[in-house]
């Protein structure tokens, strides 16, 4: 009889009545995070001044183009503010990973991300944010900080080829490992699912923004993050041996 311990934390065992079994897997939480990242970026780009909360490559490029074409200083400040808030969030996430082994192992940083997204949604509900008012700047900063925390955590607790936001590398890997390229299609399903979730969530975010305003997609993102928390904080990590054998 095998004595190998279960990969599901004891906190989750015996709670099948509260949520489906697969919600106990950490990667399910990451998929849910992917589904809110596109939504958040859609809101920030379309309604909060043409900046991104999590795609810092885009902000750097827009900053350089604005500077190179002689844009007004206000535009440059907008991109710089998003970059600065993201860096602050990433520093917070990094400190949480290093200050205590217990905090790092329990992935408590995702709770901080949730609080920041929730705060942004509450501000948007209370005061309609836009590209010019203070509420818009506050919401943008909160969301960029949340994405900075998230990226720091995913660096330490990521699942191979399950991207939450950087889809350029995921698309390149999907193509380079395809049968057309002579590859073995390693993790192809996971890569396609990540890309599909991100694209669809951005589209849904744009639709919700167009019909209902800023607060609805942000409240939806906060709700998704709330549902993802049990898996992110307590979920079991994928078994490397099993993942290698499946070669998805």
**Share of residues in strands:** under 5%
Number of helices: 10
How far apart are the termini? 30 Å
Q: What series of H and E elements makes up the topology? A: HHHHHHHHHH
Shape: globular
**Total DSSP E strands:** 0
The largest sheet, given as strand count, sense and whether it forms a barrel, is: none
- Low-confidence stretches are 1-23, 241-248
Rg from Cα: 19 Å
Oligomer: single chain
Structural category? mainly alpha
How helix-rich are the residues, as a percent range?
A: 55-70%
Number of domains: 1
Overall pLDDT score:
83
Please explain how this structure is put together.
This protein is mainly α. It has one domain. Helix content is 69%, strand content 0%. It has 10 helices and no strands. α1 crosses α8, α1 runs antiparallel to α9 and α3 packs parallel to α6. The N terminus and C terminus are likely disordered.
Task: Please outline what is shown here.
By secondary structure, the protein is mainly α. The protein contains ten helices and no strands.
Features:
248 residues, globular, 10 helices, 0% strand, mainly alpha
Chart the SSEs and their pairings.
Elements: H1 26-47, H2 56-68, H3 73-99, H4 101-106, H5 109-126, H6 134-157, H7 167-176, H8 188-212, H9 215-234, H10 240-246
């Amino acid at each position: 009889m095998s004595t190998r311990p279960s990969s599901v934390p004891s906190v989750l065992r015996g709670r099948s009545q509260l949520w489906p079994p697969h919600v106990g897997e950490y990667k399910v939480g990451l998929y849910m995070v992917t589904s809110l990242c596109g939504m958040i970026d859609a809101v920030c780009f379309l309604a909060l001044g043409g900046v991104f909360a999590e795609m810092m490559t885009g902000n750097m490029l827009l900053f350089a183009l604005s500077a190179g074409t002689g844009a007004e200083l206000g535009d440059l400040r907008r991109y710089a503010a998003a970059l600065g808030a993201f860096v602050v969030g990433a520093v917070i996430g990094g400190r949480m990973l290093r200050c205590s082994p217990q905090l790092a192992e329990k992935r408590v940083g995702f709770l901080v991300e949730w609080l920041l997204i929730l705060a942004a949604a509450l501000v948007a509900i209370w005061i309609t944010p836009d590209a010019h008012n203070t509420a818009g700047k506050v919401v943008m900063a909160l969301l960029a900080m949340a994405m900075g925390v998230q990226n720091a955590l995913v660096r330490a607790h990521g699942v191979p080829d399950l991207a939450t936001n950087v889809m350029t590398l995921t698309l390149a890997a999907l193509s380079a490992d395809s049968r057309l390229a002579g590859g073995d299609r390693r993790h192809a399903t996971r890569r396609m699912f990540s890309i599909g979730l991100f694209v669809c969530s951005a589209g849904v975010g744009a639709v919700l923004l167009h019909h209902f305003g800023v607060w609805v997609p942000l409240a939806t993102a906060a709700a998704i993050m709330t549902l993802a928390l049990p898996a992110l904080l307590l979920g079991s990590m994928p078994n490397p041996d099993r993942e290698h054998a499946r070669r998805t």
